[in-house]
Amino acid sequence: MPTQSTLETPLTMMGAPGSPYTRKMRALMRYRHIPYRMVLQNSPEQAPLPAAKVPLLPTFYLPNAEGEILATTDSTPLIRRFEHAFPGRGVIPSDPVIAFLDELLEDYADEWLTKCMFHYRWWFEADIAKASQVLPNWGAGQSTDEAIAPLQKMIGERQVSRLGVVGSNEETAPVIEQSYRRFLRAFDRHLQQHRFLLGGQPGSADFATHGQLTCLALFDPTPSAITLEESPRVYAWVEITEDLSGLDDPREEKWFSRNAIPETLRNLLAEVGRVHVPSLLANADALERGAERMETTIDGQRWIQKPFPYQGKCLRWLRESHAALSETDRRALGDILADTGCESLFG
Ligand SMILES: N[C@@H](CCC(=O)N[C@@H](CS)C(=O)NCC(=O)O)C(=O)O
User: Fold this and answer.
1) Taking CB atoms and a 6 Å cutoff, what residues make up the pocket around ligand 1?
2) Per the count of CB atoms within 10 A, which of 15, 125, 236, 336 is most buried?
3) Which pLDDT tens digit goes with each residue over 196-219?
4) Is residue 4 part of a domain?
């Protein structure tokens, strides 16, 4: 970790309140005390900013080696870049074994919980109605009801038609919905004893989880009701994690020690192994074969979806991090992951 900041601040972050990855990064910036300015998507302030190659929310505008400002996306590598650029209040555990658990849980939140998020937002009438009415208002500035109505219709229809991208369909809906409830129950039990996923201070996985849960717990009516039914504690945690700027300076000993991983964390890892790991593996297999569809079994039920190249990259990153561990670390990690289903990632 550097002793002084190597990126000029305030950083500019373009995003939207309903984007889980925008919320992930905003909570992270607040916790890390990184000064930022938030620019809303489609606002006049966005107009002069360069466009990203693949436009995604959030987008940061950061210098390359020549000092040229580039539109930069993808929260996971951005968090690692900021970890090197700003001193103090880091979110990557220093023990490589704990750091791997953090990376794996971050991937689960970013790539599996987002299936829950997108499914619930665009599957049930009440959620579709709320999201299509509110979303266009975030960036539309001052406009009349008549002017915004076609945008509301367009956004609703476009997003519903994209459900298949995350694998939400008639066959997979029960798998997604059951997994969300199981996750809530496991996270609830964990939070009864621990402040964050990896101990007494937040890791990048906490911010990823927070981002998806701002939608699931706080905004979309169907999953919000489910969250309150299963765990008011998780609901409260999402609100708390929004702004951790006042958390005492974290100390190294607040992370879990590799020799004392609580059973509640192992249960969360077992949930990752139950749904996310088979999904990552089947996706990579379909990509490798150039198949049009990935068809597999997740949680004992049929799963079909179009393969997703980005998640092929996620699996490669996890395997690279695993391969970079020393043999002692790999063995310690193996003991923690044994029988969670996560061990099949490297199998
Ligand atoms: N892996 C990316 C995912 C970002 C992402 O998928 N953002 C969504 C919104 S939350 C997006 O911009 N989708 C395209 C769109 O809405 O047009 C990250 O971690 O930042």
Assistant:
1) 19-21, 56-57, 73-76, 110
2) 15
3) 999 999 999 999 999 999 999 999
4) no
